[in-house]
Amino acid sequence: MLIHLINKIKQLSRKQKQLLMVGADVFILPFALWISLSLRLSNLWPIQYWVSNWWVLLLIPLLSVPMFIHYGLYRAVLKYMGYQVIVATVKAVTLTSLCIGTLLMFIRDIYFPRSTIMIFWFVSILLIIASRYFMKSILYLKEPIKKPIGLYGAGEAGSQVIDILRSSSEYIPVALFDDSPVKWGTVVNSMWVNSSEKMGEIIKKKKIKLILLAILGITPKERRQILQKISKYPVEVRMIAGIDNLISGDFNLQQIKSVDVEDILGRDPVEPNRNLLEKNINGKNVLVTGAGGSIGKELCKQIINLNPQKIVLYENNEFALYKTHLELNNLTQYIKVVPILSSILDPLKFKETLVKNQIHTVYHAAAYKHVPLVEMNPIDGIRNNIIGTYNCVKGALDAAVDTFILISTDKAVRPSNIMGATKRFSELILQGAHNNSNGTCFSMVRFGNVLDSAGSVVPLFRQQISKGGPVTVTHPEVTRYFMSIPEAVELVIQAGAMAKGGEVFVLEMGNPIRIIDLATKMIHLSGYVPQNSENPDGDIGIKITGLRPGEKLNEELIIGNNVYSTDHSQILKAEEKSFEWDKIEEKTLKLKAACESMEINSAIKVLKDCVNEWNPSSNSEFHTQSDWHMKIDKNTDIAEC
Questions:
Q1: What are phi and psi of 142, to 5 degrees?
Q2: What are phi and psi of 330, to 5 degrees?
Q3: Span 603-621, average pLDDT
Q4: Is the dihedral of CA 372, 376, 378, 379 positive or negative?
Q5: Are 37 and 116 in contact (CB under 8 A)?
Q6: Degrees to nearest 5, angle at CA 361 with 356 and 364
Q7: 63-77, 164-178, 346-360, 587-601: lowest mean pLDDT where?
Q8: Which of 105-119, 183-197, 324-338, 441-455 reaches the highest mean pLDDT?
Q9: pLDDT above 70 covers what percent of the chain?
Q10: Domain boundaries, the chain
Q11: What is the mean pLDDT of residues 4-9?
Q12: Could you tell me the sign of the dihedral formed by the alpha carbons of 522, 168, 140, 203, in that order?
């Protein structure tokens, strides 16, 4: 019977539930006044007083209910009510008590103890609030168990988020942390503030799997330091995405975003030079090769924001081109976006595109970049990365474009694999073209890994973690440089604008990061414990698979010692060995002939003659198309690093 009644109440409309609460208050308020008078007179049944003062019982709900409506007591959803219900009740009852007390002072011909009103103030508040929590406990007794959540930040934002979490059906706040020693040991919104140093102990004790960063007005550097501290522990971390709704009181749990490894590994942002960003783009026709790739797509997005006259997307992957074209069209209505579905191995089509669209600036991002795949397909890697670059450079010379910027890689420095050697050869093509140019400015920008690019280690680790592991790492000591895609692209555009011709620009990548540390952080950020010798019962294992063909333990960014600073603190300029155009063109054509005849040994010989710092690693293997049958253990697959 009771369960049936509870289900009936739950099925009522919002309006019907509000009317039900009004009816309950109309009964509770006179009852509270009756109890108050009984307490004052120590008489449970003071009938003689109520016979002559019955109108006071009627007046109480007539005054109180409009006050409750005014202060929003009936707008509070019973399931999610918080301290606002207490505030509204206290305000309304206080005003009602003042009105009744004032009225009784002016009516002198009745005998009604005025001190009863003071008792009524306390009793009515207690009964009104208790009735709400009683109904909440009855109606939602069988609600699912809430997940314990910790908060980082004991300020105003943290206090407000605590209330929101308490009204949540999914989470319950169980711990509050802060960096300020002044706040340690204090109480914020009924929660004890703990030192961040005790985080590991409390996380384990209270079985916290999620921590919400609830601090406003801090710098990216301060936020990153906090996130690095939290990432030591096996908890998922989320942040408040924006502050506007939090300040206005409209914040809800849908406005928090997960923290990813990019938020922790990122660097302090450097204010870009607007003049450098706009120099080769604003009001000009720009072409991007590889426009559907991770770097190419981000280049296109940033170029659109710099107001070119036209942007041409050159891409041989149909679906990637479709997605990029669609995304850019949604970003602008005034800039012409031209999709070209073609390959850089088609020199006539590329040259025609440059001439037809009167291109001023080319960003050449099209390349094969996956070390093991290019190692197993050297002919295709040489053809795409070298012959494709040669075709683009020749087209730029013939079409007399103003600027040509090559996107290069740290793997071009003393390469140990085919991919790195092809990228270094591509740099030599541009350096030679500069010596033969009668107007086109050729330059190249070299940088390390970008976070979350297609085929890179971050998305692979994320996928492996979601499947329960193991996370595969090639070597416990392998390190790589990392930078976010937007930051890398922004620096590429600025570096290209500083070029005079023939320069190799190197982006300041910061300190290299151990891949095994990256894997550990990502496992922690997903709320799991890494499984290792220290934690044999951990959730996710880390499997060491061994260096793959052509891989190095540590990457470099500069070949020689001739490195100079530029006007930008994050961009360096290197002077490196180059060839005259006639020689590099001759070698390129020999490579082209070797590729066409599938003579891998001849191609490798030409490549070694030009890239003499190429030192293939002991685990390098050159494969031909006859190796199509080779088996790959999918459990040891790891991404490009």
A1: -100, 25
A2: -75, -20
A3: 77
A4: negative
A5: yes
A6: 100
A7: 63-77
A8: 324-338
A9: 80
A10: 2-139, 147-259, 274-449+482-510+556-636
A11: 61
A12: positive
Reported as a pLDDT band with limits 50, 70 and 90, residue 245 is: very low
Nearest to 574, CA basis, from 509, 504, 508:
504
Q: What is the CA angle 73-76-81, rounded to 5?
A: 115
Q: Is the pLDDT of residue 11 over 70?
A: no
Cα dihedral across residues 192, 193, 195, 201: positive or negative: positive
One-letter amino acid of 545:
T
Stretch (H or E) spanning 302: helix 294-304
Higher pLDDT, 142 or 591: 591
Residues forming a β-bridge with 235: none
| Cβ–Cβ under 8 Å, residues 304 and 338 | no
The fourth-level CATH superfamily of domain 147-259 is NAD(P)-binding Rossmann-like Domain (3.40.50.720)
Asked whether the predicted pLDDT for residue 630 surpasses 50, the reply is no
> H/E element holding 345?
none
Residue among 406, 428, 409, 405 nearest 417 (CA): 409
Architecture of domain 274-449+482-510+556-636: 3-Layer(aba) Sandwich (3.40)
Beta strands in 67-183, from DSSP E residues, in sequence order: 147-152, 171-178
Strand intervals (E) in 96-247: 147-152, 171-178, 187-188, 191-195, 210-213, 236-240
Output the CA–CA distances (angstroms, integers) from residue 225 to 159, 210, 508, 621, 625, in the order listed. 22, 18, 20, 42, 49
Averaged pLDDT for residues 381-403: 95
> How many angstroms separate the CA atoms of 210 and 528, rounded?
11
What is the predicted pLDDT for the residue at 387?
96
The structure's pTM equals 0.68
**Cα–Cα distance measured from residue 360 to residue 401, given in angstroms and rounded to the nearest whole number:** 5
**Could you give the CA distance from residue 573 to residue 571 in angstroms, rounded to a whole number?**
7
Say whether the peptide bond before residue 173 is cis (omega within 30 degrees of 0).
no
CA 53-55-60 angle, 5° bins: 110
The set of residues, in sequence order, having a beta carbon less than 8 Å from that of 291 and lying 6+ positions away, is 297, 299, 300, 313, 314, 315, 320, 321, 324, 365
What is the DSSP secondary-structure string of 523-586? HHHTT-PEESSS-TT-SEEEEE--PPTT--SS--S-SSS-EEE-SSTTEEEE------HHHHHH
**Cβ(416)–Cβ(554) below 8 Å:** no
Residue 111 CB-density burial (10 A; 0-12 exposed, 13-18 middle, 19+ buried): exposed
| Token pair in block for residue 106 | 């002016």
CA 566 to chain centroid, in Å, comes to 31
How far is it, in rounded angstroms, from Cα 399 to Cα 391? 12
